[in-house]
Amino acid sequence: MTTATASPRQLTWARRRRAVATFWGDYRQNRAGLFGLAILAVFVVSALLVPWLVGEDALSVTRPAGEPLQPPSGEFWLGTDRSGRSVLDLILWGSRVSLTVGFAATLISITVGSLIGILAGHFHGWLSGLLLRITDWFLVMPTLVLAVALAAVLGRSLSTIVIAIGVTSWPTTARLVRAQTLAVEARPYIERARALGGGHWHVMTRHVLPNVMPIVLAQTTLMVAGAILTESTVAFLGLGDPTVPSWGSTIQAARDTGAVSSGLWWYILPPGIAIALVALAFTLCGRAIEGVLNPRLRNR
């Protein structure tokens, strides 16, 4: 089909396919980004397949598969916990919980931060000042303190952790998006769009939002890593749901058992390595994406 006979929708999708192909071609030149993507793919696939690979019965504390605190063996590759459950099974199920919390909290943070940032950059006067003051207030709010307060009111659950992380981590995104919005709206074509009758909604959705999406995408990958680390910290402090296994709760249980002083390295070390690997993977992917979207950073 020639360009003359193609519909506007077909031309739009053709441009999008070319953009995706160009993005992937630039991304795969970054070896660190590919390494991070490979690590992330392993954890995501294992989290998706864990109900079929392991099964929820492996998490039972009343009918454990082994004896408590067994060292690694052919049957239990990473040993067992204090209840006799396989530590490997706990890590696999923990990846499902930690990644879910990380993505959910990041979704809240990115959505709120992008909305506040675009509004604060597009509008001026009292509305922009009010939004900036709210952003500054949430910027200094500590996540752990809010998590403790929410746990006292809402109870210890994953939803409490998601809300606490999402509510306290959006100001950074809001400031970045606002700065990018101000830069975009200073361009001449925005003035032409307004002269042709484009209203606030048209300018923000058709011109500002597509131009701030690259920085939002790069910020998303970096924020997921931070959200997973925060979730692990909150769970380690005992503020998470005690019935749901996560990497942080596994480390907390190992600490309560005295794994450090007793030399039970297979109990406390693997979940810590899992947290570090996922955080590293998201960081490498985020830096690679940022390098693709900002060519000036590729050689740094």
Briefly, what is this?
This protein has helices spanning 8-27, 31-53, 87-122, 126-139, 143-154, 158-185, 188-195, 200-236, 247-257, 259-262, 265-293. The chain is mainly alpha-helical and 300 residues long. Helix 2 (31-53) packs across helix 3, helix 3 (87-122) packs antiparallel against helix 4 (126-139) and helix 3 packs antiparallel against helix 8.
Summarize the SSE layout with pairings.
Blueprint: H1 8-27, H2 31-53, H3 87-122, H4 126-139, H5 143-154, H6 158-185, H7 188-195, H8 200-236, H9 247-257, H10 259-262, H11 265-293
Explained architecture:
With 300 residues, the chain is an all-alpha fold. Helix content is 74%, strand content 0%. The protein contains eleven helices and no strands. It has helices spanning 8-27, 31-53, 87-122, 126-139, 143-154, 158-185, 188-195, 200-236, 247-257, 259-262, 265-293. It is globular and about 75 Å long. The model has no long low-confidence stretch (mean pLDDT 84).
